[in-house]
Fold:
Amino acid sequence: MIAIIAGATFREAARSRAFLSLLGLYACAVMMSRLVGWISGTDGNLITANMVMSLQSIIGVLVAVATGTALVQTEIQQKTLYTVLSRPVRRWHFVVGKFLGLALALACGQSAMLALGLGYLALTGAPVNAWMVLAGALTTVEVLVMAAVSLCWTSLSSPLLATVLCLATYAIGHAVGSLPQLMYHLQGFQATICVWLACLVPNLSLYEYRDQAVHGLPISPEDTAMRLLYGVMWIALLVTVTVSVLRRKQL
Amino acid sequence: MPCWPIILALLATAAWWNSQRFGERAMVPRTKDLSFLPSPVMARMLSMGHPAAAAKLRWIDSFAYFELQLDRHDDTLAGTGESGFRRLYDMLIDLDPHFELFYQHAAFNTGALENRHDIALGYLMRGTIEMPRSTALWRQAAAELHTNYQWEERQPASMEAFLDQWEAAESTYNEKRQVWDWKTAMARRQYRGLDQIGYWQDQLASSTPGSPTADYIEHTMRDQLARFAVTELQALVDAYRSRHGIPPLLLADALEPESVAARYPAGPPPWGPVTIDAGRLALRSDPFGFDLTLRDGTVTSPGLERSRAEHRMYHLSSQLAEAAKRDGRWAETLDEARKAGIEFAELPGGGAYRIVEHAVTIDWQPPPRPAWRLRPQNGGAPRK
Amino acid sequence: MSDDIVSYADVSFSYRGDWLNRIDALRQVTLAVPAGCAYGFLGANGAGKSTSIKLLMGLLHGHGGAIRLFGSPIGDHRLRARLGYLPEQPYFYDNLALEEYLAYLGRLSGMTKAQIGPARERVYQLLDLGDLRARKLKSFSKGMRQRFGLAQAIFHQPDLLVLDEPFSGLDPLWRARFKEVMALERKRGATLFFSSHILSDVEDLCDRYGVIDHGTVLEQGRIADLLGQAPLELTGSGPIPAGAADLADGTWRLSFPESDRARALASLPAGAEILRLERHRLDLEAWFVSRVRAHHGAGSPLAASAASATSTKSRGERP
Structure:
């Protein structure tokens, strides 16, 4: 049942205008990133590589948030889920199937972006190495975590508010990595808030390996597995919260 | 009525309007202050997971700041009293600690511009820790130790130890060979003033021909080569004076075979002002294409003087802007600028000041000969 | 009760209004849909029809009382495999083609891939969808969506068809076709349970009905019994009985309910000649409006408008 829902969601998401438009935007932005390399006054290859790897994450997160926030709320508002939930489908089947379908679409999008980005870098003479592929895979995990975040927020609020909250989560999630260094300046209540914040938000800085990968710096298999596991754990948590909310929701 | 003619007309107008910003008359030096430089930790937080890309963009955006500091020779940040360069590079390096150019630029700007070679060396050392395989950083650090700390003479054992560490950090034969060359040269180094030429040649080879970076590197090399030429010829003139009791009438007279042989036992250096033409000693032009001159027993390079005058010119532009801020109006002519308290030093021959678009420029007559070719014949290939 | 496909017993439901207020949507609703029948669920807008149906579908929860589907409590999601549902004003995924969508929903209902092909051809024929099979649903008009909605509801040949306002947005031709399809489904053995506020549709299709207003079931029963409540009309000549209308051509006409038939005939004056005795056709709309009006009370705005509608309709249809 989950696989059936996931399959339909994948097709729906992969054909959606937002998804395809943002992929197009990525392609344009990758071409434009060469400009940044040029105006740097250097050969620009490393700078272009940084831009391309960052664009995969930025556009990927935008795709995840745009499609993730529409995933459940649009179904509820447009009542498209009536024809699904009136069949022998449990609500958790629906949420998990929806997420897996979206995750599959996003993973395909990320793979396409990575192939396009690395291909472009290779064509323009910028450094390309196998670690960048691994960095792209970790960025995909980051994007999937953000998709789960958007799914969770959208089950708790309106799509617009969910989008804002998702972007805030993204910013805080990356800032969490630097938070311990700021703790020296904080005391008492402020410090407590920061610690709580750091503990309750996914630490997306774990997926910033792309910058090291551009310089060809390796990452250990254990570290990679840990980051993967961390992402899966957050996805499981957020999807479970979404299931819990949707089970109580009056449709 | 179709819309496309209106769209085309408006688009053409907008493009023309925008293109005005790139007109030659409007291309004035930008001035930009770093009014807000977050701490490295805060900058990392603000980069939202893309520190390397953010660092590169910030770096590119601060190019105008470098221009300003080059003119002002004052790097103090308003209000804080801190060095803008240092704060900027601390931030950039923290955001992307594996980008070689940050360390090189940080060392150059704090060393050459601020004359803080201790800090420059600190950046290079940090770079060798973060990037132990970076040949360029090791080489620049070695050049810094040699040029500004004279470690080869004052601390030869420490210099040897440093070179040993460099050698250990290199992994390939060719890279290790560079260190061996350094060690060999340490024993027979003679030409003070040309120590950095090898480094700049490498930089030039890896830069894009015609780019601002390439122009800057070429200018720096010509500057160093001109200084070397002046120093060497002055030594030959002094030798002539001690031998004959009077200075030579012409500069070419100073090229006495005995003096030249005494100064260059292995033959004139390839980047030097003396060459051998048809079996006879001959003078080269300065690296800018001007004839080196002798005036009252002192050797001068017109190209070097022009270069110094251009440095002063940027300072004059800053003074012009400060005067305009103070007086509430821009000086449009040289006389008005002088009345505003700006002193225009006398220019070397063939130059005249002019004020264009609120900036001081100098009109030069072209040099009589082409400038030295500095780029290697196979240069310009992108760095892999 | 064991033959009932759907049964509601004392079902109450309220939803959250502003702040902590709760609004009662259903009050002690009790109704039963016997197997094989066509049940028309009548009610004005906001009466509680869709809420009742959503509770049955499991889209709403937290009700009081008991709802049974195929004799079992509705909590078991597997029961919904035997059920086809057309929501009111249905929307569908924009970027799936019609044939993909049908296959998707069919598989969710437990159909195998082998069953999907023939089932698809069947609904293409019934609802004339063959030419649209490869088109994405975002390009569909409202009527096309409604056709697709019915197609997905009957696609897996369910035992119970729950249709919420199935005729909304349809032109007369497609209304007629929908009725044919629903009749065919019933002939196949499916039970129909549909809500509507168009009473002629209920009369055409249903053999049972229920009327709901403000969350309360006012009345339910057989359509035949309801139609049987239509008055008899006696046309005669000669002496005019009390209460009869004197027609200009020397005849008179007397109307009385079926239950008064014997008394009315016995009380005819001597010499009165019976020309014909006919059953008057019941004006369902007038009947519905009068039922709602009676439930609301004369003071409510809806009752006033209902009264106006009743009088207009009555004048127009009386000979």
